[in-house]
Design goal:
Belongs to the NAD(P)-dependent epimerase/dehydratase family. It comes from Sutterella parvirubra YIT 11816. Residues 4-235 form the NAD-dependent epimerase/dehydratase domain. This protein has 313 residues and is α/β, with parallel strands linked by helices. The protein is built from eleven helices and 14 strands. The strands form four sheets. Strands 3-2-1-4-5-7 form a six-stranded parallel sheet, with helices on both faces. A three-stranded parallel sheet has the order 6-8-12. A three-stranded mixed sheet has the order 9-11-13. β1 (3-7), α1 (14-23) and β2 (27-32) form a beta-alpha-beta unit. α4 packs parallel to α5 (139-158) and α6 (184-194) crosses α11 (298-312). The chain is globular, with a radius of gyration of 19 Å. The termini are far apart. Bound molecules: 2-amino-3-ketobutyric acid.
């Protein structure tokens, strides 16, 4: 696995995954939608405009660059998807099955991340086991469950190497997320540095699993490189780092910015989504099958986030 196409390279994960993998010696083609220009820091390697729905064009890109692995980060996140279920299904399911068909034909490995959104209110929330009930009530979650099942199906039936991770909310300072339920955990750092205060759209009791981006990047590469012989699960692994409530992240920020003020302006649409999601993920399977270990604690992440955000405001 050395020649990688990252679809969604300009997004929150992609904009950091592409340089992370290039630094580690992979040839990475940065695939962007064409709606947003290629971020300048991705211009030191090959790039393509990619439409996930156009499998013929995708096939030509795969051939041109002799791609062996596709990491598909195209997705409409949970909150936005609720307003456009058909678009969420098109990208999240039709796009993914098209890619799996191409993978079957061209012997590609495929990684399409799943999410804590693949669980629902009937799932045990603390901890949420690896193998458990998955009846999500959001269209985003529904597409993620379908993707997990499709990955297993193409693996069992056609031998496609499809793997995935169930990401918690991801926190980073390079590219903002957009339209997710966990976005507040990024915004809070920017507002803390800019204004010293933040109004949380999720209530004080809302505990969600989260992860700092460097751990998510490492997890992506580690699961992609894991020895298939040692894996029992493929689609998709729970991966955890830490969980917190808005009060707890505020406390972490106050260690560096003592005057930071947290208030609440709860958004019922976001709260309803968060209330059906896990509070704490059990990631034993990832730990046992491919040696997953997070590096960053909440406080360690906060220290980096505040320092990096301060350089950028
Ligand atoms: C979202 O909030 O929609 C995403 C996710 C947890 O998948 N960050």
């Amino acid at each position: 696995m050395e020649r990688i196409l990252v679809i969604g390279a300009a997004g929150q994960i992609g904009s950091e995954l592409v340089p992370y993998m290039r630094e580690r010696g992979y040839t990475v083609v940065a695939g962007t939608s064409g709606r947003t220009p290629l971020p300048p820091h991705l211009a030191d390697g090959p790039s393509e405009t990619v439409n996930l729905m156009d499998t013929e064009a995708l096939k030509r890109i795969v051939e041109r660059h002799r791609i062996d692995t596709v990491i598909n980060l195209a997705a409409i996140l949970s909150a936005t998807a609720e307003a456009k279920p058909f678009a969420a299904w098109s990208v999240g399911v039709n796009g993914v099955i098209g890619l799996l068909e191409l993978a079957r034909e061209m012997k590609l490995s495929v990684l399409t991340p799943s999410s804590i959104g693949a669980f629902g209110p009937e799932t045990p929330r603390n901890p949420t086991p690896q193998d458990t009930i998955q009846r999500p009530k959001t269209i985003y979650g529904i597409t993620k469950v379908v993707d997990e099942l499709l990955g297993d199906y193409y693996r069992a039936k056609y031998g496609v190497d499809a793997r995935s991770l169930r990401f918690p909310g991801l926190i980073s300072y390079v590219t903002p997320p957009g339209g997710g339920t966990t976005d507040y955990a990024v915004e809070i750092y920017w507002e803390a540095v800019r204004r010293g205060r933040y109004a949380s759209p999720l209530g004080p009791e809302t505990r969600l699993p989260m992860m700092f981006m460097p751990d998510a990047l490492r997890a992506t590469v580690e699961v992609m490189e894991a020895d298939a012989e040692k894996l029992k699960h493929f689609n998709a692994f729970n991966v955890a780092a830490f969980s917190f409530t808005p009060d707890e992240i505020a406390e972490s920020i106050r260690r560096k910015l003592p005057g930071f003020e947290l208030t609440y302006a709860v958004k019922p649409n976001l709260q309803a989504i968060a209330d059906g999601w896990p509070q704490v993920l059990d990631d034993l399977a990832a730990r046992e099958e491919w040696g997953w270990r997070p590096e960053y604690s909440l406080d360690a992440m906060t220290d980096v986030m505040l320092a990096e955000v301060a350089k950028r405001v």
